[in-house]
Automatic annotation (TrEMBL):
PROSITE patterns: ABC_TRANSPORTER_1, ABC_TRANSPORTER_2
A GO MF label: ATP binding
Ranges for domain ABC transporter: 3-231
Record keyword Phosphoprotein present: no
Keyword tags: Amino-acid transport, ATP-binding, Nucleotide-binding, Transport
Organism: Agromyces lapidis
InterPro entries reported in the protein's UniProt record: AAA+_ATPase (IPR003593), ABC_transporter-like_ATP-bd (IPR003439), ABC_transporter-like_CS (IPR017871), BCAA_Transport_ATP-bd_LivF (IPR052156), P-loop_NTPase (IPR027417)
Range of residues in the leader sequence: none
This protein's name: ABC transporter ATP-binding protein
NAD found in the keyword field: no
Family: Belongs to the ABC transporter superfamily.
């Protein structure tokens, strides 16, 4: 498995949030993590990416130990994290925002490959990122992560606040990343959208993994349909 999380414990100070969380994402696979507000999804990505220090368990990428390594080392180790709320630098140009993603490669990222993924950014390279639409800013945030040519990418709710058409566009890009061989770990509240593209899904509750399976298996479960799909079949 490319990205492997085993029995991860983490929290904030004395507050334990994650309890023995395990999951794996292979190269060329999309795994989605769903769960209600406060389930610990964002905390999981932070702990994997070293933004908070795990108190137990391990994280490995292609067999290399990442557990507790500093966040700024993660990109050069092959792991990219696209955090919630896109976090573009609004006064910097699109080009400069993308270039920031390549610092771990000495500033030399594959801009052409990123623009192939997001052709809409090409005519906007000189535009201040703060003037882009929400969907375009999400593209910059993902594109910035891709500049370091990662093996694995983790995304925290990339669909948040976006119109359905733009959500579909972002989901399609994630399938393109999968076909380029990346391991994709997708945290989403928009379960309908993430189940539409994921190979496997993990459900978290109160900091624990409580269910896992393919989206097709999970939508058969009334508790999943009621909690995350408004009761309807997907
Ligand atoms: P959401 O879908 O609402 O973003 P989530 O599943 O991503 O939720 P987390 O953001 O990981 O959940 O939060 C899990 C728990 O950790 C919550 O109880 C939250 O209050 C707590 N928490 C998050 N950040 C901090 C922090 N910096 N300090 C203390 N507690 C925190």
């Amino acid at each position: 498995m490319t990205l492997s999380v085993k029995s991860l414990d983490a929290g904030y100070g004395k507050l334990a949030i994650l309890h023995e969380v395990s999951l794996e994402v292979a190269a060329g696979e999309i795994v989605t993590v769903v769960g209600s507000n406060g389930a610990g999804k964002t905390t999981l990505l932070r702990a994997v990416n070293g933004l908070i220090r795990p108190t137990g368990g391990t994280v490995t990428l292609d067999g290399t130990e990442l557990t507790g390594r500093p966040t700024e080392k993660m990109a050069s180790l092959g792991l990219t994290h696209v955090p919630e709320n896109r976090l573009c630098f609004p006064t910097l140009s699109v080009r400069d925002n993308l270039s920031l993603g390549a610092w771990s490669k000495g500033g030399k990222g594959d801009l052409d490959a990123v623009l192939e993924l997001f052709p809409r950014l090409k005519p906007r390279l000189g535009q201040a990122a703060g003037t882009l639409s929400g969907g375009e800013q999400q593209m910059v945030a993902i594109g910035r992560g891709m500049m370091a040519a990662p093996k694995a990418i983790m995304l925290d709710e990339p669909s948040i606040g976006l119109a359905p058409k733009v959500v579909a566009e972002i989901m399609k890009v994630l399938t393109e990343l999968r076909s380029r061989g990346l391991a994709v770990l997708l945290v989403e509240q928009n379960v309908r959208a993430s189940f539409g593209i994921a190979d496997r899904a993990v459900v978290m509750q109160r900091g624990r993994v409580v269910l896992e399976g393919t989206p097709a298996e999970l939508v058969e479960l009334p508790e999943v349909r009621n909690a995350y799909l408004g009761g309807a079949a997907a």
